[in-house]
Write a structure and sequence with these properties.
Largest sheet: 8 strands, mixed
Number of domains: 2
Distance between the termini: 35 Å
Radius of gyration: 19 Å
Strand content: 15-25%
CATH topology of the largest domain: Glucose Oxidase, domain 1
InterPro entries: Carboxypeptidase_A_C_sf, Class_I_gatase-like, LdcA_N, Peptidase_S66_N, Peptidase_S66C, S66_fam, TAT_signal
Mean pLDDT: 92
GO molecular function: carboxypeptidase activity; serine-type peptidase activity
CATH architecture of the largest domain: 3-Layer(bba) Sandwich
CATH class of the largest domain: Alpha Beta
Organism: Glycomyces algeriensis
Number of helices: 10
Shape: globular
Family: Belongs to the peptidase S66 family.
Structural class: alpha/beta
Helix content: 25-40%
Signal peptide: 1-29
Low-confidence stretches: 3-34
Order of helices and strands: HEHEHEHHEHEHEEEHEHEHEEEE
């Protein structure tokens, strides 16, 4: 995932039953070593969502679009002090981003922390974050891309489930279906069912079989950037999800190779592959591997089911995915069924 700095305006400028049964069965069959996720409460009209920007800068216009969507569902939104700042390719200096993120995680009233954007920068501050306030006041973390580092750390320190999801800076890639998938994941306890999309380039990545276990993962670049295993969940019996954007095919090959060499794929029950949007400078030449062929070369021989074509990531019309809860991957049927990240 390459950095994608964007300009920002100042703060003042911003004026089913089957699915449930499948997931329940998974929870009963989950490995003993897999700790059951803690679930924050589902959001209801009137609940507060706090928006920090721990990574890169965004624009007031993009954030306003996201705010309008959430307020349309009856939710309240509060931007942190530096959410609309710009500082190089970061939203603000490290100390300001850290203070804003800490404020959001510690907030006693907020029911969710939905980051403004991904970009780059969360890894610069994540080791300084305290998760004591999040333990005391559980809330849903919502974001993806650079926010993968926050998902991993929060899960490690609190056991809370979270949402791999578009962020408050509402992208032009998002659709009405994207918004509805977010509303459902935030405000209901319905299982999330993701279906292989044959139009997604990674739909060619497929190894038959079924698997069940806790789902974790996110952006491959951020997973690969973890300096050690301290924030990585136990892979034994788990389902790994990966996606990425603007990375050359050889770079994806290298990340997966390092993961293989480090043993991070050992013991996995299955792998779900989301959207891998291409680097525009990575020009394909005849005889080279396509992105799907790279993924199959590195993942296809693990002896576990692999399901590609999952509409989650940086591509067009993405969906929202719970992280940390139990899931059923059925590569034969082309489905990934995931227990909700929230509870009644």
């Amino acid at each position: 995932m390459r950095n994608d700095p964007r300009p920002s305006l100042s703060r003042r400028a911003l004026i089913g039953a089957v699915a449930a049964g499948a997931v329940a069965a998974t929870a009963q069959a989950a490995p003993a070593a897999a700790a059951k996720a803690r679930k924050p409460a589902k959001l209801e009209a009137g609940d507060l969502v706090v928006v920090p920007a721990p990574g890169g800068p965004t624009t007031a216009a993009a954030v306003a679009k996201g705010i309008a969507i959430l307020e349309g569902w009856g939710l309240r939104v509060e931007l942190t002090e530096h959410a609309l700042d710009t500082y190089g390719w970061l939203s603000a200096p490290d100390e300001h981003r850290l203070a804003d993120l800490q404020y959001a995680l510690d907030h006693s009233e907020a029911k969710a922390v939905m980051t403004a954007r991904g970009g780059y920068g969360t890894t610069r501050i994540i080791d300084e974050v305290s998760f004591k306030g999040l333990k005391k006041h559980p809330k849903l973390i919502v974001g993806y891309s650079d926010i993968t580092a926050l998902h991993l750390a929060a899960r490690h320190h609190t056991g809370l489930a979270s949402l791999h999801s578009p962020m408050m800076a509402w992208s032009s890639n998002n659709t009405a279906a994207t918004a509805e998938s977010l509303r459902t994941a935030l405000m209901t306890t319905d299982p999330v069912v993701l279906t292989r999309d044959p139009l997604e380039p990674t739909s060619a990545v497929l190894v038959p079989g079924t698997a069940s276990g806790p789902l974790y993962g996110g952006n491959l670049s951020l997973l690969d950037a973890e300096p050690d295993e301290s924030h990585l969940p136990d892979a034994d019996g788990a389902i790994l999800f990966i996606e990425d954007t603007d990375e050359a095919r050889y770079r994806i090959d290298g990340m997966l190779t390092r993961y293989l060499r480090a043993g991070h794929l050992d013991g996995l029950a299955g792998i779900a592959v989301g959207q891998f949007t291409p680097d525009e400078h990575d020009e394909y030449k005849p005889g080279e591997w396509t992105m799907s062929e790279v993924l199959m070369n590195r993942l296809g021989g693990l002896g576990i089911p692999v399901l590609g074509g999952v509409k989650v990531g940086h591509g067009l019309d993405p969906r929202v995915m719970p992280l940390g809860t139990q899931a059923v991957l059925d590569a034969d049927a082309g489905t990934l069924t995931i227990e909700a990240a929230v509870a009644d």
